[in-house]
User: Fold this.
Amino acid sequence: MIVRTVADLRRHVRGWRADGASIGVVPTMGALHDGHLSLARAARRDCDRVITTIFVNPKQFNNPADLLKYPRSEDADAALLATVPVDLIFAPATDEVYPEGFKTTVSVAGVSEPLEGRMRPGHFDGVATVVTKLFGMTMADRGYFGQKDWQQLQVVLRLVRDLNLPVEIIGCETIREADGLAMSSRNLRLTQAGRGKAAVLYRAITAAADDIRAGQSDRMAIREAAETIRAAGFDRVEYIELRDAQTLMPSDDPASPRRMLAAAWLDGVRLIDNIPV
Ligand code: PAF
Assistant:
């Protein structure tokens, strides 16, 4: 069932809540792949009712060209979601989410600022704003997010804590292709040759993380990873950083949970990945 308006969505949700059902929401921008489906399956296991939202959120695109070329495939997405299955797809038009006069921005300081936040100014304000709205619209008990977008997951966790939103955030493991490449809608934009090289990003940061655990200096291991990625034919390494897993601030303390995060360009496509260290 595809629902387009908040009023309709609320009608369904109120009925479910009146029956005592728990509700899980999987926010997406469509162009679904196995990564998204794994979130929906996790929600299916945990919750009585599952909503997937499909909304290409203009506020999180700092580049208008990216927004225009973002893939839209609602029929195919609905067919995939039917295999899970989910109970409801909420796919509103832009003016249903941002009606005339909309003025509020949710901004999470600190964790939103480095890495993706620095490369894509305003991106996380757009994410935090729409996610807050989607939680309010769906009244979900649990929200499912992929660890592939690690920084986004930390922004959402901080947001929910800071605003006392009554939703539990579940961070689900990154789903990878057989060669290790993290699943992403962007992978489809790679050429065949690019696709052949793309998993080097994951392999290089995995090797760096292993070397760091074995005692190599963080800086040296990261430099070697960047060289491996460039040598494989990537256009550019934007960053490879070892950060505190929660705050995303620089961390040289091996005793606290750390995350290695990377962004690199291949075939004009920006790929990101991250792993625990
Ligand atoms: O990860 C995404 O697809 C988006 O950032 C999200 C969480 C659906 C918000 O638009």
Remarks:
- Residues 27-29, 57, 60, 127, 130-131, 149, 152 surround pantoate (CB under 6 Å).
- The chain has eleven helices and nine strands.
- The CA atoms of residues 19 and 142 lie 17 Å apart.
- The longest helix spans residues 123-138.
